[in-house]
């Protein structure tokens, strides 16, 4: 919001985003990852072996410290689990957009 405000104030090119668009980004960015996380918790509770492997990897990589980008990028098992949950229980499974072609 702040960077967008800086972007739109004082320029006449109208390149900023609107409040409606901010709203869409906010909700699209909350609902979909939230649904993914809830399904991940459900799947991990059904597959305790996977839960154990994920826990071991996270403990090994972060050693009780807050997560950082370097550590997140080195994870192997957790992204596999997230991708599998996205495949099995997609939080968003359709496209509303339609391609219009000119003839
Ligand atoms: C695993 C995570 C996510 C998945 C599976 C996902 C999936 C999708 C899909 C399938 C669409 C297209 C919908 C359509 O055109 O009908 C979409 C659009 C969109 N998503 Fe996500 N999304 C995810 C995360 C996020 C996050 C974190 C944000 C924002 C921080 C976000 C913001 C948006 C926005 C703004 C659109 C609309 C784009 C446009 O108007 O063209 N999404 N998402």
Automatic annotation (TrEMBL):
UniProt record similarity statement: Belongs to the cytochrome P450 family.
Keywords: Heme, Iron, Membrane, Metal-binding, Monooxygenase, Oxidoreductase, Transmembrane, Transmembrane helix
InterPro entries per record: Cyt_P450 (IPR001128), Cyt_P450_sf (IPR036396), Cytochrome_P450_Monooxygen (IPR050665)
Predominant place of localization: membrane
A UniProt-annotated Pfam family: p450
Residue stretches in coiled coil: none
Subcellular location: Membrane
Gene Ontology BP term (one): secondary metabolite biosynthetic process
GO molecular function, one term: monooxygenase activity
SUPFAM superfamilies: Cytochrome P450 (SSF48264)
Protein name (Swiss-Prot/TrEMBL): Cytochrome p450
Domain of life of the organism encoding this protein: Eukaryota
One GO location term (cellular component): membrane
Annotated transmembrane regions: none
């Amino acid at each position: 919001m702040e960077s967008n405000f800086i972007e739109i104030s004082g320029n006449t090119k109208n390149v900023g985003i609107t409040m409606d668009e901010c709203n869409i980004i906010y909700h699209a960015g909350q609902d979909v990852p939230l649904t993914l996380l809830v399904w991940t918790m459900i799947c991990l509770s059904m597959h305790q072996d996977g839960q154990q492997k994920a826990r071991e990897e996270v403990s090994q990589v972060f050693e009780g410290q807050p997560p950082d980008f370097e550590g997140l990028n080195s994870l192997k098992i957790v992204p596999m689990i997230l991708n599998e949950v996205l495949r099995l229980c997609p939080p968003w499974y359709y496209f509303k957009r339609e391609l219009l072609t000119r003839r």
